[in-house]
Amino acid sequence: MNGPRVSRRQLVKYAGVGATFVAAGGGTAWAEDDEAQRRGDSRHRAWRAGDHHVHSEYSGEFDTSVNPPRFHKGADAVYPIVTNAIMAKHFGLTWAMCTDHGGPTHSKVNLVLAYPDLVRSRQLVPEVLQFWGMEFDAPKLDHHTLMIPRHDDEAKMLFELESRFAKHDAFPADPGRDTEAKMIEFLKAAKDMRQKPLVIAHHAARSATGLGVYGQDTPREFRNGNNVAPDVYVGFEGAPGHQAGPLNGGSRGGYGSYPTHGGFDQMTARVGGLWDSLLGEGRRWWITATSDSHVHWTRGGSDFWPGEYSKTYVLARQDYGDIMDALRNGRIFVTTGDLITSLDLSAKSRDRSAAVGETLFLRKRDGADVEIEIRFRPSQGTNGNGDRPEVRRVDLIVGDVTGVNANLDSDTNPTTKVVARFGPRDWRRQGSEYAIRHTLRNVEQDLYARVRGTNTDELEPLPDDKENPWTDLWFYSNPVFVRRV
């Protein structure tokens, strides 16, 4: 069944604007183009919640005793695509994406079976923009989101990328697909497409065996991939899915060897850790939060519905193209448990300002003070657990941007620290929002600032045990950069 065709005027195509990471040579890793500061008309942009990692019944299994392999629905995840869309709408999402597992010849399953169901779901639940893509079997790495831009040939585009590059799509199996060189080949092909996809790593440290003892995904592989395709390979899940695990005796995120911290992956949660190491190079490397929904915890699974617990908010119009642009350019914050519903972070100096994902160009002759403003809106109602969570603290985190790190395995940024902690007495109410202001004095170094907040008393998010996830809520912004010129 074919869906309605979308006119060219309705399609918003990514035009390649914005800052680009420069990997070659030494020095600071900034692009010279500041076009991101002039993106044009931003009217009607608002914080819109979504989820780019959801599974449907097309996360199934393959009978490889026959050739070609025979596919069976519902072996790993159980819900129809439209059910996920209905539940996403119920929990306040305006965009979502089914990312089903691959397998031998799965590219044909996506093209022939799953895509028509997506088209039907778009017609039945038009309030939720539903992206096409998959949980990509990334060569040499753990799973990744592969998000396809909304256009007439989106189904063919995914088929081409999955059939050529997904490490498990070949039948018989091809060990030559499971190499970092193949991942680099995939990213080069993706970045050269007129309609550029997005690639975001899933549960990046789930296979880690200790703090900084990584498994399938490593700092070196993230750097190499981002160097090749900085406008395609743009980040990882800060908060992985499977957060309902403790409600059925499991671990948050399915992190069995080394736990999450406050529901967030160690690569994000550790101040001065891997995320900060990447940001300290000036990389536009963003974090998201997803459900990874397979089976709801009330049916014995470890999952919440899309949007029930974790949300990725993007500052965008309700438009496929602008939502992808927000994900590509870091106009993102994430939260768990509906602790907040908006978060604006800006850096200002005299007549210039920049918001999340952008760069404030600070003139040396204008002085060196930078005003940081944080604005957040707490939830006005109850969350998916029937609670009214309250923000107890907001932290401002700042780190230096010092340039390309010659050590591709580096996972620390010793300059990063919490420079200020704010409680309810430190913020003032402005309508339905709260505002916080803090001045960074005598800024003489390129830097970035980011924000996190919590409903707990933990100064740092502690390693998770079996606590109820609804009692341990956090939000994180993506960074705003400051560059001295």
Detailed description of the structure:
With 485 residues, this protein is of the alpha+beta class. The chain has one domain: Alpha-Beta Barrel (TIM Barrel), CATH 3.20.20. It is 17% helix and 26% strand. It has 8 helices and 22 strands. The protein has helices at residues 81-90, 106-124, 154-165, 180-191, 219-228, 266-269, 274-279, 320-329, and strands at 46-54, 61-63, 70-72, 95-98, 129-136, 144-148, 198-201, 233-239, 286-289, 310-316, 332-336, 340-349, 352-355, 359-362, 370-378, 393-400, 417-422, 428-430, 433-440, 447-454, 474-477, 480-484. The protein has a 15-stranded mixed β-sheet that branches. It has a 5-stranded antiparallel β-sheet with strand order 13-12-15-19-18, with no helix packed on it. A two-stranded antiparallel sheet has the order 2-3. A hairpin with a 6-residue loop joins strand 2 and strand 3. Helix 2 runs antiparallel to helix 3 (154-165) and helix 4 packs parallel to helix 5. The longest helix is centred in the N-terminal third of the chain and has 19 residues, at 106-124. The radius of gyration is 21 Å and the shape is globular. This is Phosphoesterase. InterPro entries: Pol/histidinol_Pase-like, TAT_signal.
List keywords for this structure.
8 helices, disordered N terminus, 15-stranded mixed beta sheet, five-stranded antiparallel beta sheet, alpha+beta, TIM Barrel, 17% helix, 485 residues
SSE topology sketch:
Blueprint (H helix, E strand, L loop, with lengths): L45 E9 L6 E3 L6 E3 L8 H10 L4 E4 L7 H19 L4 E8 L7 E5 L5 H12 L14 H12 L6 E4 L17 H10 L4 E7 L26 H4 L4 H6 L6 E4 L20 E7 L3 H10 L2 E5 L3 E10 L2 E4 L3 E4 L7 E9 L14 E8 L16 E6 L5 E3 L2 E8 L6 E8 L19 E4 L2 E5 L1
Parallel strand pairs: 1-4, 4-5, 7-8, 8-9, 14-22
Antiparallel strand pairs: 1-10, 2-3, 5-6, 6-7, 10-11, 11-21, 12-13, 12-15, 15-19, 16-17, 16-20, 18-19, 20-21, 20-22
Helix pairs in contact: 2-3, 4-5
